[in-house]
Amino acid sequence: MSGAAAHPDQLNSYHGAPLGSAQFKTSAADFIVDEQFTPSLNGGEHLYLQIEKRDQNSLWVAQRLAERAGIEPHAVGLCGLKDRIAITRQWYSLHLPGRELPLAALADADYTILASGRGAGKLRRGDHSGNQFTIVLRRVSAACSDVDARLTAFAQGGFANYFGAQRFGRNANNLVEVERLVAAGKLVGDRGRQRSRARRGSGPVKPIGNNGLLLSAARSWLFNQVLHARLAERDRPLSRDDDGPLWGRGRSGAAAALADREASWLAPWQSWCHALEHGGLSQQRRPLLAYPQALSWQWLDETTLQLSFGLAAGQYATAMLRELVELQQPQLTQSDATVVL
What we know:
about 350 residues, globular, Pseudouridine synthase, about 25% strand, 14 strands, about 30% helix, alpha+beta
């Protein structure tokens, strides 16, 4: 990949090194996610479904819903992608103008339909306000008192708002693919490619698939690089208002001095920045710190910890947990792996 950079597992921490280790996601029931979203069920062309899934990824469920409804996959919307090794509850939308389908026709043994209704618009990424987590960590090796103190620090001072490693695919393979496409001049984004073809008069273009998702992975990685560098500036402690770049076209929203420092940190990644600027994405900012909402915990026994908290959309539970303990997760097989962007 372009330039020297920290591996996803070597990014600087806000609170210090992990206190010990713990087993993570030993079963789906150890990681429960409830999407925080209240749809406007006022009638319309879209059928909204609240789905509970277990050991399945969100895009696979979307594909199954499209097949059962007899519609194209792009006609299915969702607010966000959820972990596979988990029990998750989230909303989907199916574009069914003028059609009514019995819920039994959409049912599947691998998920459960919890609620339904009709709405006016397709659900899109980020439409939800956040997610509520219930997580169990097993065989925690750290002292209970140290863990309690670190969790109190999270509740009061937040944690480093990194994009989680799952954003970059298994073994960070999405970043490798980004570098390959950037080197070939082909990471221009789905919308960027279609606009380019339209200007040349080449007519309609077949959807490019993952290019848009790879652009998202690239800008997430660049944000992580800036946060990593910012945490190394011990003479400039972070505050709640500090933010970093989600790279794209347009002027940086940072003050001049900070924009200069960010540009220097991203200098090894100029080819990636250039691709993002021409990929249909606009410059945005993201907070450097995330704050868990209503964080509570209890020790089920001396080495088993149950956590409950909420996070805003786009924030990662694993970004907080990495500053608590080193997570030891059962090895996934290739069929278990999922690219979560």
